[in-house]
Amino acid sequence: MPEGPSVRKFHHLVSPFVGQQVKTGGSSKKLNPADLQLVLQDTKVHGKKLFLRFHPDEEVRPPGNNPLSEPLQKGARKEVATDQKQTLGPDGPKISDQSLRSTELAPNGEDSSHCSGGSAPAGDVERWLHVSFGLFGSIWANEFSRAKKANKRGDWRDPVPRLVLNFGGGGFLAFYNCQMSWSSSSVVTPNSDILSEKFHRGQALEALGQAQPVCYILLDQRYFSGLGNIIKNEVLYRAGIHPLSLGSLLSPSSLESLVDHVVEFSTNWLQDKFQDKRQHTQIYQKEQCPVGHQIMKDMFGPPGGFQRLTWWCPQCQPRLPPKEPEQLQL
Questions:
Q1: Where is this region: Disordered (predicted)?
Q2: Active-site residue 264, yes or no?
Q3: Running DSSP on this structure, what letter comes out for residue 242?
Q4: pLDDT tens, position by position, 129-183
Q5: 67 is catalytic
Q6: 8, 48, 53, 162: which one is catalytic?
Q7: Rounded distance, CA 294 to CA 292, Å?
Q8: Which domains does the chain have, with CATH numbers?
Q9: Which of 16-30, 222-236, 270-284 comes out lowest in average pLDDT?
Q10: Is 77 known to be catalytic?
Q11: SS3 content of the chain, % helix, strand, coil (to 5)
């Protein structure tokens, strides 16, 4: 899924629409797009999560009309529209495809405890829409994503947005490959967000000092919200730390250096995104490190947990303690 810098860029795209009325709600019947008359009042970002706050527009909502009276069903059930062509409002863009997928409105993995996913807001109660992105999730403002290459069947078919929001000001937002759920509040804890000014270094250092492989701890969103697999690989290489080194065996200066690289790399990546610059990686998906050593890769993760591809240089990132032979090169 997109990492912290990417979701911050999505937040930047959404922010100009705050204060505008939502005219239609895209491809999902669960959001009642024909009657949806809400105002986007706020948007927040936390790590890999994006929150949109809506409130009924009293000036345009007919009496007794509750635009979000239908409950949002739990689960990631997909509904496919029967029409081959769906119009997203009288003033909005049109999308043509064999079918349009519905919005998935269900908790996603680690975020499930924070999302109600059940009933939609009733009456005049404002609610937050929590957006979590899939592997290739994205948001496009005032344009749609286009196919960059043909699929396996040779078709140049454009991606289908999961949700499109048209606004009274004339613009629109297209959401791709994402899940959504209603929540009574936004769950934002800036002390764990690696891109927040309130990021708590002490809490991060304490977590890294556990007797666990540091590559496991770095992906723990409780301490490093927004940190994903790319950042994990890059900061471990820059700090010269083997992914499976136990944090409890690393020196305080090594842990400090690792946190420094987390903040520095994430911040630089975000700046590059705002400047439309290409991301520069030193080890992620590489065959050799910048020094010229052969890179190794393997799947690492907690026992019974999610395994992630990891790249490392045995020479630049020696394992502590060097008890076991290195993994076989792939």
A1: 56-120
A2: no
A3: -
A4: 999 998 889 999 999 988 888 777 778 888 888 889 999 888 999 999 998 888 8
A5: no
A6: 48
A7: 7
A8: 4-58+126-183 (3.20.190.10), 190-312 (1.10.8.50)
A9: 16-30
A10: no
A11: 25, 25, 55
